[in-house]
Amino acid sequence: MILSAEQVAADVADVLFAEVADLDGESDLRDQGMDSVRVMELVEKWRGDGIEGLDYVVLAEDQRLARWAAVLAGLQGVGEPAG
User: Fold this and answer.
1) Is residue 66 part of a domain?
2) Dihedral of the CA atoms 61, 63, 66, 69 (nearest 10)?
3) What distance in Å separates the CA atoms of residue 73 and residue 79, rounded to the nearest whole number?
4) pLDDT given for residue 11 in this prediction
5) Has residue 63 been placed in a domain?
6) pLDDT tens digits for 36-66?
7) What is the Cα–Cα distance from 31 to 51, expressed in whole angstroms?
8) Which of 25, 39, 41, 56 has the greatest count of CB atoms below 10 A from its CB?
9) DSSP per residue over 9-55, as a string?
């Protein structure tokens, strides 16, 4: 399964109990309600969706939705490489 940027945003909105339209892709997700438990929940979900090699630390370092979409795309071989 390929996770699109739109699906990543929908998953993030889901764990934050928010609407996708309310998320700011360039703002720190911690300022939008993200915490370590929710990050880990997303890591486990995305690993279950087939994103092998996804590491909690990579997402925790830069908690912007746009960055997460780029990291996930890179791990899937789509767009820019993660890192």
Assistant:
1) yes
2) 70
3) 6
4) 98
5) yes
6) 999 999 999 999 999 989 999 999 999 999 9
7) 26
8) 39
9) HHHHHHHHT--GGG--TTSBGGGGT--HHHHHHHHHHHHHTT-TT--
Give the total number of structural domains in the chain: 1
- The answer to the question of residue 83 being in a domain is no
pLDDT at 70 over 50: yes
Q: Does residue 81 sit within a domain? A: no
Residue 15 identity (one-letter amino acid): V
Residues 6 or more apart in contact with residue 51 via CB below 8 angstroms: 3, 72, 75, 76
- Predicted local confidence at residue 2, as pLDDT: 85
Kindly report the average pLDDT of the chain as a whole number.
92
For residue 45, what are the domain limits? 5-75
